[in-house]
Amino acid sequence: MRKRKGWFALIFIVFVFCGCSNQNEANEFYSHDGAIVAESADVAVEGEVETSFTGIQGVADNDRMVAYQSYVTIETQNYRMLHDKIEARALELGGYLIESHQSEFEEGTLVGTIVLRIPEQAFQSFVNFVKETDGKVVEHSTHGTDVTEEYVDIEARLKAKKVVEQRLLTFMEQADDTENLLKISTELAKVQEEMEQLIGRKNVLKNQVALSTITISIQEVSVGTSSIQNESLQTWERSKKLFIDTINTCLFFFSSFVVFLIGLSPVFIPVFLVIFFLILYKKKKKGGSIDFKGKK
Asked: ∠58-60-64 over CA atoms, to 5°?
C-alpha cells in the first residue's frame, strides 16, 4: 500500500514538473515583450537577404523586368482624325486610354495630349505606327526603368514575412494568457499589414512592366502657316544674311587687292617707272622728228 502511494506521489510530481516546464516554455514564447517573436523575425530577415541576393544574381539579361515609357510630339493638319486613328490602333493591340485632354486656339486649330497603356509585346510596333502616321514627328524619346532588383527583393521579403506570420499563428494557438495573446495579435497584425503593402507594390511593378506607357502630344497646324512658313520662307532673315554676305565678299576682295598691291610693290614700282620713262622717251623722240620734217 505504501509502495502504491509512493508511486502515485511520484507520478503526481512528474506531472506537476512537466506542467510547469510546459508553462515555462510557453511563457518563453511571449516573455520580454515579444523577444522570441523578434528572434524569429531576425532569422527570417537573414534568409530573406540571402534569397534576394541569390535571386538577383540568377536573373538572365533577357528575363529582366523593364518598365518602358515613351513621349512623342506630332504636328498634323487634322487633329481629330489623327487622335481617333491612334486610339483605335491602341485598342486593337489590347491597350487602353487613361488620359486625354485638348484645347482650341483662336484661329481654330487644336492641341491636346493623350496617354495610353500598351501591352509590352506590342509597345515598339505601336511607337513605330505613331511615327509613321500622316503627322510630322517633332520630338520623340523612350526610356526604360529596370525594376528587376526591387521585384526580386519584394518576393524575398514576402517569403520571410510569411514565415514570421506562420510562427506567430503557432504561438497564438499555444498561448493561454490574455496579455501574451494581445501582444502576439498586435505583432501579427503588423506583419500582415507589411505583407499587404509588399503585395501591393509587387502588383504595381508587374503592371508597369506588362503595360508600357506612351504620352502623345498632338499639335494641329494650318496649311501655309505656323512651322511651314518658319521653315521654308524666312524672307527677312534670308535677306539680312545675303546683304551681310555681299558686304563681306566685297570687303574680302578689296582687302585682297590692297594686300596684293602692297605685297608686290617692290616689283611694280620699278616696272612702272621703267614703262613711264620709256613712254616719255618715245613721246619726246616722236615730237623731235615731227619738228625736223616741218623745217624741211
From this structure: 110
pTM confidence score: 0.55
Question: What domains are defined for the chain?
Answer: 2-60+149-210 (no CATH), 62-145+211-224 (3.30.70)
Strand partners for 112: 102, 218
Using an 8 Å Cβ cutoff, are 69 and 143 in contact?
Answer: yes
Of 12, 29, 288, 16, nearest to 169 by C-alpha is: 29
User: Does residue 48 contact residue 156 with C-beta atoms inside 8 Å?
Assistant: yes
Q: Which three cell numbers stand for residue 261?
A: 598691291
Percentage, residues of the chain above pLDDT 70? 72
Residues 275-294, mean pLDDT to the nearest whole number = 67
Report yes or no: 212 and 69 within 8 Å, Cβ to Cβ: yes
**pLDDT band of 240, cuts 50, 70, 90:** confident
How many whole angstroms separate alpha carbon 49 and alpha carbon 235?
A: 68
Q: Which amino acid is at 84?
A: D
Q: Distance between CA 154 and CA 175 in Å, rounded?
A: 31
